[in-house]
Amino acid sequence: MNNVRGLNNISSLKKKILAKNADEEWQAYFYKLRNKIKPSSERQMKTTYSVWINGYKDLSYFVYCGDTEWRYYCKFINSILSSIRKGESDYCFHIYQIADLLKFEHDRLEAIWLPEYQCFKVWLN
What is the pTM of this model? Predict the structure, then answer.
């Protein structure tokens, strides 16, 4: 989240939203967040990393040892992107997830706070 520096502390904002159930406060923050996030040229999050060591790709990255937390997170974000691009709505739980979604659907993403479920509903405009 390096590219959202200068915004208020995200965890304290979420606590305020949870305490006040204030979607208006979230919408003001969402506007600032959108202006800080730079769009990606990719269509979705990449789930793999590779490392070059002395001119050769490190083969240890090709040994399957189960999905990492990063891969699970990428699958989650990509699943939301797939749903909202089909015209559906989806849900996420943290502001950093919305920041990642903004990288891929910068101008079309909409999000509201649902206090009764303590999550965000997201869709494309």
Answer: 0.74
